Amino acid sequence: MIRIPCPHCGPRDHAEFSYAGDATKIRPADPDAATAADWHDYVYFRDNPRGPHMEYWHHTQGCRAYVKVLRDTSTHEVLAAGMPGDTLEAGR
Q1: Which pLDDT band, with edges at 50, 70 and 90, does 91 fall under?
Q2: Percent of the chain, pLDDT > 70?
Q3: What SS3 string covers the chain?
Q4: pLDDT at 47
Q5: Are 2 and 73 in contact (CB under 8 A)?
Q6: What's the CA gap between 67 and 48, in Å, rounded?
Q7: Which of 9, 26, 23 is nearest to 85 (CA)?
Q8: Nearest-angstrom CA–CA distance, 15 and 3
Q9: Residue ranges of domains in the chain, CATH in brackets
Q10: Closest CA to 60 of 25, 1, 24, 13
């Protein structure tokens, strides 16, 4: 079971959350100058990392906040969590 520590509600079961995406993706720097290929890559191409990975989760059945989560994809252990603007490190 994955327990996600919501900054507002405390530790909650992952069933209260919806996965909201990869938190490591960076939007094209100049959206007006970005090509269709740039947007295609941003929207559809994802790495499939093994180990620690930064993700966004939406607390849909709680406070409705977006939470940034550093999760080990091989063990599902949550290493750190915080607000989307936070810098996360394992063990925090």
Answers
A1: low
A2: 98
A3: CCEEEECCCEEEEHHHCEEEEECCCCCCCCCCCCCHHHHHHHHHCCCCCCCEEEEEEECCCCCCCEEEEEEECCCCCEEEEECCCCCCCCCC
A4: 84
A5: no
A6: 20
A7: 23
A8: 9
A9: 3-82 (3.30.2270.10)
A10: 13
Q: Kindly state the tokens that stand for 87.
A: 């810098």
For the segment 15-38, what is each residue's pLDDT rounded down to a tens digit? 999 999 999 998 999 999 999 999
Task: Output the six-digit token pair for 21.
Answer: 């995406």
Q: Which residue has the tokens 């090509």?
A: 35
Between CA 4 and CA 48 the distance in angstroms is: 21
Q: Is the pLDDT of residue 56 over 80?
A: yes
For residue 29, give both structure tokens: 């720097």
